[in-house]
Structure formats: C-alpha cells, structure tokens
Amino acid sequence: MTELALVPIVFATSCLTAVIGMGGGVLLLTLMPGLVPTPAILPLHALTQLASNVSRAGFGWRSIDLGIVPAFLVGALAGSWLGSGIYQLLDVRWLPAFIGVFILVFTWLPLPLVRGGGQLALGLLGFVQTGLGMLAGATGPLGAAVLLQRNSERDWLVVNTALYMTLNHSLRVFAYFAIGFSYAPWWPLVTAMVIAGVLGSWVGTRLRHLVPQRDFHKWFRLLVSVLAVRMIVLAVL
Predict the structure, then answer these.
(1) Which residues contact 116 (CB under 8 A, 6 or more apart)?
(2) Would the pLDDT of 47 be above 80?
(3) Residue 148, SS3?
(4) DSSP string, 161-190
(5) Distance (Å, rounded) from C-alpha 197 to C-alpha 50?
(6) Beta-bridge partner residues of 36
(7) Taking residues 117-140, what's their average pLDDT?
(8) Which residues contact 211 (CB under 8 A, 6 or more apart)?
(9) Which of 39, 95, 142, 222 is least surrounded, with the fewest CB atoms within 10 Å of its CB?
(10) Which tops the pLDDT comparison, 184 or 145?
(11) Are the C-beta atoms of 167 and 69 separated by less than 8 Å?
C-alpha cells in the first residue's frame, strides 16, 4: 500500500515541472526509495517521467522546435547503449546512495559551461544525459545550459525540455526492458502514476504564468538536498 503514495507525489512533481521547466523528476526520484524496491526505482521513474514529458510537450505543442531532435537522438542512442552496460554492473543496494550523491553534486555545484546551442552541443547533451540517466535517473537540469543558448523564452524552454526528455526517457524505458526489467507486475501502479503525471502536466501548464519564481529555486534546492541525504542514509543503514 505504501506504493500508492507515489500517485499524489507524481501529480505534484509533474505539476511542478510544468510550471518551472525542471525539478519534478529530481524530487520524485528522491522520494521513491522506501516506497518501491531498489531495482524498480529507475525503470519506474523513467516510465512515469516519459508520460509526464509527453503530455507536457503535447499541451505546449505550438512551442515545439523539431530542429533539436536529430542530433540529440543520435547522441542519446549511444548514451543509452553505454549506460545500460554500466547499469548491469552496479550493485543495486548502493544505487540510492549513488543517486543521492549525484543529485547533491548537480544541485549545488555549477553546471559545466556549454558554449553554443548547435548540433554538436545537442548531440553531446543526448549522449551524456541519457547515459547518466541510466545510472542516476534525474538529469534534466543538464539540458538547460544547451537550450538556453538557443532560446531563453520560458514557454519554449519548458516545452522543448519536455521534448528532449521524452526522447531520453523513451530510450531508457526500452533499455531497462531490454536488459531484463519486467514492467508487467507493476501495471496497476504505473497506470495510476501515468494518469497522475498527465493531470499534473495539464494543471501545471495552466498555472505556469500565475506562479512567480522569486526565491523558489533556493528553497527547492534545500528540500531536494534533504531528500538526497535521506536516500544515502537509507542505502547505508
């Protein structure tokens, strides 16, 4: 029954991402340990985030820029292949701790400066983000540095972040399935989480222009950090 707590959590985090463009996936990932078995965390997270991102891109389809797709997809294919190989070598017991440390690093340390938003930068983004996503789950903030070079308008950033994360999560879901994870036993929970994610995207899209972002990121970073530490403690104890 504890797994059902993920349904309102998915709604809230999907709504959050639709408002500010990122952060919901990280927050969801930090809350999953203890609610589902460790081997299921990343595969279920990928499938749920796939539904959230597809719906978010769909609700803002007028802002979609298909020009980012080809280069990102080529890099993402290579990244998913490499990441799935490394994932099979990991000890799942320590996976939450690894993810927690990863989240702390990318929450508090400055992201690498990415010069240009051209096709090479998009290809590298696809490779790095999808490869790391296979191991750590939440890598959405990595793309902001690249997309900001192309367009800084808020709706464009939110929708096209959702577009490339749709490609990212699609490849990750396929990769987890290909290396042996079965989604079939999880279909009731997954169905509820997918519906919650789509509803969250719909609500968040309509709230986006009403919610100020002043001081939000500071408090969000603190909350995510506390939850990341919780993941590390759960893995160690």
Answers:
(1) 149
(2) yes
(3) coil
(4) HHHHHHHHHHHHHHHHHHTT---GGGHHHH
(5) 9
(6) 33
(7) 78
(8) 19, 20
(9) 222
(10) 184
(11) yes
Q: Which of 127, 142, 138, 133 is nearest to 176 (CA)?
A: 133
| CA-wise closest residue to 151 among 214, 26, 64 | 64
The pLDDT of 126-151, averaged and rounded, is 74
Q: How far apart are CA 231 and CA 110, in angstroms?
A: 22
- From the list 34, 20, 36, 19, the residue with the least C-alpha distance to 193 is 36
Domain boundaries defined on the chain: 2-236
User: Of how many residues is the chain composed?
Assistant: 237
Taking residues 111-133, what's their average pLDDT? Answer: 74
Distance CA 157, CA 162 (A): 8
**DSSP summary character for residue 237:** -
- Alpha-carbon dihedral sign for residues 81, 120, 109, 200: negative
**What helix, strand, coil percent values describe the chain, rounded to 5?**
80, 0, 20
Highest mean pLDDT among 89-93, 133-137, 189-193: 189-193
DSSP type of residue 22: S
Phi-psi region of 110 (alpha: psi -120 to 50; beta: other; left: phi over 0): beta
Using alpha carbons, select from 33, 64, 1, 7 the residue that is nearest to residue 138: 33
Rounded to whole angstroms, the maximal C-alpha distance in the chain is 48
Task: Report how far residue 18's alpha carbon sits from residue 202's, in angstroms, rounded to the nearest whole number.
Answer: 8
Please give the helix or strand (H or E) that residue 34 lies within, else none. Answer: none
Nearest to 138 by CA among 53, 212, 58, 78: 53
Q: Which residues make Cβ contacts (< 8 Å) with residue 224, sequence separation at least 6?
A: 23, 26, 27, 30, 103, 107
